[in-house]
Task: inverse folding
């Protein structure tokens, strides 16, 4: 049985999250900022009774800032070490099947992408970049430290 | 059949858990029938079930133990240490087999004759070291009924209830918007209260008393001390502290390890202890308590302690630290080296500890759950380890505040007081850009929350509120916030690492409307805000000294007298405030008196017209006598911080001063007592005698005689004047006593001048008591 992938768009680029890691896809409306937190932490939100730490994927990849001012954003909810995170993405597309194991990308990618890459994975829709969710959540600062 | 077996296994496990502590306690007091019975019940249950399930080995073991215990129950045999050890060994074996059954393995084949033979009565039983327990009396007679549930199910239940709360809040909003019907509102109110109750109960289900962790300790220490040939007494306290169930599991191993270390390396053998001048039985005390948002678990032994210098030598030898570094370590840092990997001061490796798995593992385990381990030790006196474990999932009383339109919560335990920045007693100053608030003469560093958080606050500085915070163990500072909202009980959960990395927050919580709120860590804010907590400590003392000398801050009660005068009464003389019907105030024996319960007190302050129905009065107390003082109303609690202008003539008012910005007359309690207390009021009072509180002979043997002679007995704690002091130290003085009686232990006086009385000279003692009592009249 091959791995399922969730295809999302971040900064205009279509990439793949391991679908097993994603609990749900939500639309965030309220966002409570966390002053003094790392820039890629967009804030907190609540999914029913759970507090979600909202990660701005654009910031995490150092691609720019997602504009959250217009209200509702789409986000993928993941759980990592007992904490729930919502990853803000441009668009959540579809779940598709992977056809291969991830292989290293030898071409030079952007620095941010390089950090979160788990390798290239073959799908029906061509090669996709498989994202390391933990790296995405920890952001640029954690790597530097 | 499988179902039956798994039920049997679950039952056995539960009984085994409960039994660990029981059996050691039983050894300590072999006559304790209740404990014997519960152990007997266990082996009996096992035996009965084994026959049914066909586990011959288990059956043979439990049967043998049952027989031996039955003899003890029948009084035909005494529970000696050998028997206890043998029964313990059998129970361990049973536990082992049950664990194997649980894992789905076949029962191991083996021979248990050695174990069974150990139960046989021997003429000469070797004496095993005793490990007695003084654990809090656990009456296991009525065990609460319990079932087992998976944590996941509980979590689902919890989040379900939380969702229900949110749905209720949503419904409440909708109901407010539409036209309200009384019937609907009533039903909704009921629903609300039921949900609140449920939420409370569900939160409780996640919590467990730490007792469950402690119950196994006496048994463990007993086995350890037997193995090491030491004598250890376990003292357990605070078993009723509640902790997240998962957390209890997480600290089980570190706690076990620390206790093993304490018994193995800390506590000496009986011979060594006697040589060091200690009691031969070592004491290991384990206690738990809640402090703010942490649970503190102390493990203290009175053993040989940790030698910091030796640790440093070892650390240098092992290459953990540089030699140059080593010289600069504080004693505390030296001790902290114990947590470095690969260090142990034990001279030899024993089977118990020192197997390379050291304190570094303990520390990393505790740190993994967000806790801290601290060590404190004095060579020769003992060691104390403190585990500080965060309350992961807990209800914290908190104050919600807002800054720049965003809500935050502050744990109430850290809050000293709340003042308004524009209040009378508060001034704000800037020193080199740093804020300093002076609150009633006390200088405290001030931080604007908006600045710490990097937010823009649109409230001018003067209109903010100051929350004076005292982080655990540190000095105070003031935090300026825009608005204070509400006191709430919040269910706090840990925040994600990215949020915790700021150092500002202790966790997150959900407000009633379902939006997340961040809970501050007061110590973290101080740190981020750049307040030097320790340095400030010293500076504040320097500031405070002259202030304290210049202004004597006497707390007073500001009130309006019956004649409408604004007066102040020193708080120290006011016992309490009473309200009595006007009818209980009467003229009697030349002055106004008020009846308060059984007592009739002289009444002062009745210089205006008495109210028609009820009179409020202060009950004043000078330590021996009481009088009442009638007044109209209390204005406020305040302090005299200004100059006092004394009155020209002695009278009810001793001085005039400014209290809270307006003049007020200061009532003179001395004049009140000297005027209103006539001789008659003073006479029936008992003479007072002071006895040293810490002298058991005085308290147990002498006190009844003194009291029978008509004295009221007080101790050194009450420093006021007494009529008589009795001392056993011939050279001691009691300056505040009208007379002194000295007692000596020898029948004959040491010299001619010796005025003391032999302590068993009853007649002489009574005579002295009588003459001292008469002398005061």
Result:
């Amino acid at each position: 049985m091959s791995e399922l992938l969730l295809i999302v768009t971040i900064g205009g680029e279509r990439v793949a999250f391991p679908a097993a890691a994603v609990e749900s896809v939500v639309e965030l409306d309220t966002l409570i900022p966390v002053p003094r937190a790392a820039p890629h932490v967009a804030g907190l939100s609540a999914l029913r009774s759970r507090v979600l730490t909202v990660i701005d994927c654009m910031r995490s990849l150092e691609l720019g800032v997602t504009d959250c001012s217009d209200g509702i954003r789409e986000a993928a909810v993941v759980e990592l070490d007992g904490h729930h995170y919502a990853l803000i993405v441009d668009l959540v597309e579809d779940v598709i099947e992977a056809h291969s194991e991830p292989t290293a990308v030898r071409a030079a990618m952007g620095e941010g992408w390089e950090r979160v890459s788990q390798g290239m994975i073959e799908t029906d829709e061509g090669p996709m970049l498989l994202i390391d969710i933990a790296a995405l959540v920890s952001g640029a600062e954690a790597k530097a430290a | 059949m499988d179902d039956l077996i798994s039920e049997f296994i679950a039952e056995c496990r539960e009984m085994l858990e409960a039994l660990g502590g029981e059996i050691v306690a039983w050894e300590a007091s072999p006559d304790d029938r209740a404990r014997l019975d519960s152990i007997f019940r266990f082996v009996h249950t096992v035996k009965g079930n084994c026959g049914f399930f066909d586990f011959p080995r288990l059956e043979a073991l439990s049967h043998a133990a049952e027989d031996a215990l039955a003899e003890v129950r029948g009084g035909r045999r005494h529970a000696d240490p050998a028997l206890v050890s043998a029964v313990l060994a059998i129970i361990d074996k049973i536990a082992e087999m049950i664990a194997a059954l649980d894992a789905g393995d076949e029962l191991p084949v083996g021979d248990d004759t050695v174990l069974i033979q150990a139960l046989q009565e021997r003429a000469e039983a070797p004496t095993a070291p005793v490990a007695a327990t003084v654990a809090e009396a656990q009456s296991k007679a009525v065990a609460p009924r319990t079932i087992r549930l998976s944590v996941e199910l509980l979590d689902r239940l919890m989040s379900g209830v939380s969702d229900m709360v949110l749905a209720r809040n949503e419904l409440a909003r909708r109901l407010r918007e539409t036209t309200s019907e009384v019937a609907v509102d009533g039903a909704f109110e009921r629903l609300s209260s039921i949900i609140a109750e449920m939420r409370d109960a569900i939160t409780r289900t996640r919590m467990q008393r730490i007792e469950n962790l402690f119950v196994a300790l006496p048994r463990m220490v007993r086995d350890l001390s037997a193995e090491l040939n030491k004598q250890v007494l376990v003292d357990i306290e605070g078993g009723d502290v509640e902790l997240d169930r998962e957390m209890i599991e997480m600290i089980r191993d570190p706690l076990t390890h620390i206790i093993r270390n304490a018994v193995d390396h800390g506590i000496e053998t009986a011979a060594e202890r006697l040589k060091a001048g200690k009691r031969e039985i070592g004491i290991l005390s384990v206690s738990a308590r809640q402090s703010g948002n942490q649970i503190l678990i102390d493990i203290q032994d009175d053993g040989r302690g940790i030698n910091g210098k030796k640790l440093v030598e070892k650390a240098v030898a092992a290459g953990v630290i540089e030699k140059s570094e080593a010289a600069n370590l504080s004693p505390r840092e030296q001790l902290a080296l114990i947590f470095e990997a690969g260090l142990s001061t034990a001279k030899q490796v024993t089977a118990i500890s020192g197997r390379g798995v050291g304190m570094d593992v303990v520390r990393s385990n505790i740190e993994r759950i967000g806790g801290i381990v601290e060590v404190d030790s004095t060579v020769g006196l003992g060691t104390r380890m403190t585990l500080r474990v965060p309350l992961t999932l807990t209800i914290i009383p908190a104050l919600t505040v807002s800054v720049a339109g965003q809500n935050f919560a502050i744990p109430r335990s850290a809050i000293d007081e709340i003042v308004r920045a524009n209040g009378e007693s508060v001034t704000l100053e800037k020193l080199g850009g740093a804020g300093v608030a002076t609150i009633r003469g006390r200088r405290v560093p001030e931080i604007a929350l908006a600045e710490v958080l990097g937010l823009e606050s649109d409230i001018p500085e003067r209109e903010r509120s100051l929350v004076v915070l005292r982080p655990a163990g540190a000095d105070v500072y003031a935090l300026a916030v825009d608005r204070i909202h509400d006191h709430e009980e919040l269910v706090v959960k840990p925040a994600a690492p990215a949020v915790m990395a700021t150092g500002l927050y202790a966790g997150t919580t959900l407000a009633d409307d379902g939006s997340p709120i961040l809970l501050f860590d007061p110590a973290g804010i101080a740190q981020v805000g750049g307040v030097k907590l320790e340095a400030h400590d010293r500076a504040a003392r320097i500031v405070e000294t002259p202030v304290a000398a210049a202004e004597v801050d006497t707390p007073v009660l500001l009130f309006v007298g019956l004649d409408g005068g604004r007066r102040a009464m020193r708080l120290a003389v006011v016992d309490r405030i009473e309200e009595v019907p006007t009818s209980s105030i009467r003229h009697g024996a030349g002055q106004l008196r008020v009846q308060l319960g059984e007592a009739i007190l002289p009444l002062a302050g009745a210089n205006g017209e008495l109210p028609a129905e009820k009179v409020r009065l202060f009950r004043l107390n000078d330590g021996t006598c009481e009088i009442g003082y009638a007044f109209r109303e209390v204005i406020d609690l305040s302090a005299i911080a200004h100059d006092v202008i004394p009155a020209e003539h002695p009278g009810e008012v001793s001085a005039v001063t400014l209290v809270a910005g307006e003049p007020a007359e200061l009532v003179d309690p001395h004049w009140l007592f000297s005027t209103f207390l006539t001789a008659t009021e003073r006479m029936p009072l008992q003479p007072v005698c002071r006895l040293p509180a810490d002298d058991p002979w005085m308290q147990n043997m002498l006190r009844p005689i003194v009291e029978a002679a008509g004295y009221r007995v007080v101790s050194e704690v009450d420093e006021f004047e007494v009529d008589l002091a009795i001392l056993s130290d011939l050279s001691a003085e009691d300056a505040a006593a009208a007379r002194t009686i000295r007692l000596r232990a020898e029948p004959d006086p040491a010299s001619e001048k010796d005025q003391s009385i032999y302590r068993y000279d009853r007649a002489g003692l009574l005579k002295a008591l009588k003459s001292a009592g008469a002398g005061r009249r």
About this structure: Chain A has a mean pLDDT of 84. The domain at 4-144 of chain A is CATH 2.40.50.180 (OB fold (Dihydrolipoamide Acetyltransferase, E2P)). Helices of chain A lie at 57-60, 111-116, 133-144.
